[in-house]
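Possible regression after last week's pipeline update?

I re-ran a chain I had predicted before the update to compare outputs. Posting the input and the new output here so someone can diff against the archived version. Not blocking, just want to make sure nothing changed silently.
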Amino acid sequence: MIKRNKKKNEKYNINRDKIIELIRLAKVEIDIARENFNYLDDPKLIEMAIYQEQAAKSKFEYLVLEAKRKGIKAEDEKIYLDYCK
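New output (post-update):
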């Protein structure tokens, strides 16, 4: 049973560089959704952009919390500061 749990933990173990890259990608997704929102005029597409931004924000927040939980700190704190604009 211990081996099974160890394998499961290894499966979900994301290293520092990977989680920072995922945070950066989530930030890009937020930016893209915001840009889409600014240029769309169809109500359905605007709604889609809103949902995309919400999903990207949720992903970003989850990854930041996960990084904090694992004691991961990015040298480039600009990632978070840009998000807070």
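Follow-up from reviewer: compared with the archived run. Helices lie at 2-11, 16-39, 43-69, 78-83. Marking as no regression found.
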